[in-house]
Design brief:
single chain; 344 residues; BirA Bifunctional Protein, domain 2; two-stranded antiparallel sheet; 7-stranded mixed sheet; alpha+beta
């Protein structure tokens, strides 16, 4: 049964309460005002009392609670916010706690390395929107409506039902189109960026990946210029002994077109499990810009010619660091990303 003596006893304990640290203040708050604290217990008992007892003890209990709260706040103010867990205040002249710093993502490292290589060759960097229209992604690049070559790139469409729907770009070639529309010849640019294709995610494919494409347009540009540019890039990227080979291929926006392989930088052309015993690794596609693409952007194809190339950054990073699963680049696994701390 609650008595006046119970309340006076708690008040006396509050008056004698002393704390030296914020931790001790918090412990005192829990002791008196916590869910199982002494003041809280008295209030629980008060709820079950008869009305005549409630009139007798109600005001005294409220005064007790206010006194407990005021005492806790007073102790906290006496100690001050600068007090730590120990008996002395923090020494602000001491060195701070160390914490781990992040590193650049391997795809970002490769992107910057490739951009730096082509900057040495006189290329500028051009960028464009990731949400594009059908004209810049397909039609201006010699993909007429209903052309079967559109099946080569499974597309995420954002809008449909009108002649020029919006979509997530499937390649950064759309940036080349916008560059040709707005810049005067000669044009020499690389176009890095993120692209999207509706593909099943696996060790070798992803619905999001990164590309970097190049474009060079001027008078008298030939396939020999293209081959030399790719060879110089490959030797800068994979080592001075690197060789390339070009295989005929097909792209709607280039003619002639080729796939480019580099000699395996792991077995040096002797054959291994990475190059599947061939001694070669595929890195990019390229070709001479189709005259229809030049004309669509207002460039006189009888006077100017040019070449274009494109490569996947994840593919280059996989070859550079022998990564066997494309998904590692998107999982944010610190164990994987920490491997590149010393690469920057």
């Amino acid at each position: 049964m609650m008595t006046k003596e119970n309340i006076d006893k708690v008040l006396a304990e509050l008056g004698e309460l002393k704390c030296k640290t914020l931790k001790e203040v918090e412990e005192a708050r829990v002791r008196f005002l916590g869910k199982k604290g002494e003041v809280t217990a008295l209030f629980e008992e008060f709820r079950g009392m008869d009305k005549e007892f409630k009139k007798q003890f109600g005001r005294a209990l409220n005064d007790l609670k206010q006194a407990a709260q005021a005492r806790i706040e007073s102790l906290k103010a006496d100690i001050g916010p600068e007090a730590g867990e120990g008996d002395t205040a923090s020494d602000l002249s001491m060195p701070g706690d160390s914490f781990d710093l992040g590193s650049r993502h391997p795809v970002s490292i490769v992107r910057q390395e490739i951009v730096d290589i082509f900057r040495k060759f006189g290329y500028d960097v051009a960028e464009g929107p990731e949400i594009e229209d059908d004209y810049h992604v397909f039609e201006a690049l010699n993909f007429p409506p209903n052309h079967p070559a559109r099946d080569m790139q499974d597309t995420f469409f954002i809008s449909s039902g009108h002649p020029n729907p919006l979509l997530l770009r499937t390649h950064t070639s759309s940036v080349q189109v916008r560059t040709m529309e707005t810049q005067h010849v000669p044009i020499r640019v690389v176009c890095p960026g993120r692209v999207f294709r509706n593909e099943a995610i696996s060790a070798r494919a992803h619905c999001i990946f990164h590309q970097i494409e190049g474009l060079y347009i001027d008078e008298g540009v030939t396939f020999a210029d293209l081959k030399q540019a790719i060879l110089l890039f490959a030797r800068e990227m994979f080592g001075p002994q690197t060789q390339i080979r070009m295989r005929p291929s097909y792209f709607p926006f280039t003619e002639p077109s080729a796939e480019v392989d580099v000699s395996c930088n792991i077995c040096h052309g002797k054959g291994c499990n990475v190059c599947k015993g061939t001694g070669w690794l595929e890195i990019l596609g390229c070709g001479m810009v189709d005259p229809n693409v030049l004309e669509a952007s207002g460039i006189d194809s009888t006077k100017y010619s040019g070449f274009a190339f494109g490569m996947g950054l994840e593919r280059i990073a996989m070859l550079k660091w022998r990564v066997n699963d494309l998904r590692h680049y998107f999982e944010n696994d610190m164990r994987f990303l920490e491997e590149f701390d010393t690469v920057v």
